[in-house]
Amino acid sequence: MPERTPFRAVLFDVDGTLVDSNDAHARAWHQALAAHGHDVEFAEVRRLIGMGGDKVLPRLTGHDEESEIGEQIAERRRAIFTGDLLPHLAPFPSAAALVEALRLRGYRTVAASSAKGSELKRLLDIAEATEHFDALTSSDDADASKPDPDIVLAALQRAEVPPDAAVMIGDTPYDIEAAARAGVGCIAFRCGGWQDDDLQGAIAIYDGPADLLAKLDDSPLGQATSGAVTAPSPTQIGHAVGVQQRLEER
Predict the structure, then answer these.
(1) Cβ 185 vs Cβ 30: under 8 Å
(2) Inter-residue contact 175 to 50 (CB < 8 Å)
(3) What domain range is 184 assigned to?
(4) Residue at a domain's end among 88, 113, 136
(5) How many domains, the chain?
(6) Domain assignment of residue 95, yes or no
(7) Out of 15, 43, 61, 126, which residue is the most buried by the measure of CB atoms under 10 Å away?
(8) Burial class (CB in 10 A: 0-12, 13-18, 19+), 87
(9) What is d(CA 147, CA 153) in angstroms, rounded to the nearest whole number?
(10) Nearest C-alpha neighbor of 146 from the set 186, 102, 120, 113
(11) Is 169 helix (H, G, I), strand (E, B) or coil?
(12) pLDDT class of 4 with cuts at 50, 70, 90
């Protein structure tokens, strides 16, 4: 076994990280919004995927998720996603193998997703990764979704480790910012559809699960203690927040 890093837990985003679902989420929101008279460009919806409904809905419509119309739109989105789109989703190559490999190396593995708990379980079934996780956290466990740090903080509690003993793996700027605000470093994947410039603040960037798995020994999760990457610096946190601000201005 490689020398142990100072990290003891890996926190996984799921949508766009283990399962190829970001476009499907965007389509579900786009169709649900159109059904309720909101003409929003698909690209505008797509760049918000990675946040939870508590963030997406107000930004696109001005409606709170708990308002009557907000609940109607959110329910329509859930019906479209879970009924029409989710059954056709597929995992990224080596998604389950990566989680399994990290767990075999002694890391605690915890899902840290903005999805609702019921959706998260189905997504992990698609990834064939459920049995490789020690614990699951979803938007049901947090007051606010990413890029707020609530879900990451909840995942740290489930992992029973301090922030500097964990690494998050995600695919959006919102994962990076949420992790940074919780004091956790984030490895980013390109497979969710974001460019490297959008993923500034990540401690490392890989194409996806298969790429990280192939390079695991040379990654932040395989480095010896003397060369390991530490928790995010104020500069990295600033990069993550700055990326989100630029995205909001587009």
Answers:
(1) no
(2) yes
(3) 9-20+89-249
(4) 88
(5) 2
(6) yes
(7) 15
(8) exposed
(9) 12
(10) 113
(11) strand
(12) low
- Whether the CA torsion 214, 218, 219, 222 is positive or negative: it is positive
Q: With beta carbons less than 8 A apart as the criterion, state whether 110 and 11 touch.
A: yes
Decide if pLDDT at 107 tops 60: yes
Structure letter (DSSP) for residue 49: B
Cα 114 to Cα 134: distance, rounded to the nearest angstrom: 18
* Residue finishing a domain among 56, 88, 120: 88
139-173 pLDDT per residue, tens: 899 999 999 999 999 999 999 999 999 999 999 99
Q: Please give the C-alpha separations between residue 11 and each of 91, 136, 180, 230, 231, in angstroms, as whole numbers.
A: 18, 9, 13, 15, 14
Whether pLDDT at 117 is above 50: yes
Does residue 138 fall inside a structural domain? yes
Which residue has 């308002």 as its token pair? 67
| Model pLDDT, residue 223 | 60
Per the structure block, which two tokens stand in for 235? 């500069």
The tokens of 77 are what? 């989105």
- Cα-Cα-Cα-Cα dihedral sign, residues 135, 138, 144, 145: positive
Q: What is the pLDDT of residues 65-75, one digit of tens each?
A: 899 999 999 99
Contacts with 136 (C-beta within 8 Å, 6 or more apart), sequence order: 110, 111, 113, 117, 120, 121, 124, 158
Q: What is the CATH number of the domain that holds 137?
A: 3.40.50.1000
The tokens for 58 are: 């107000």
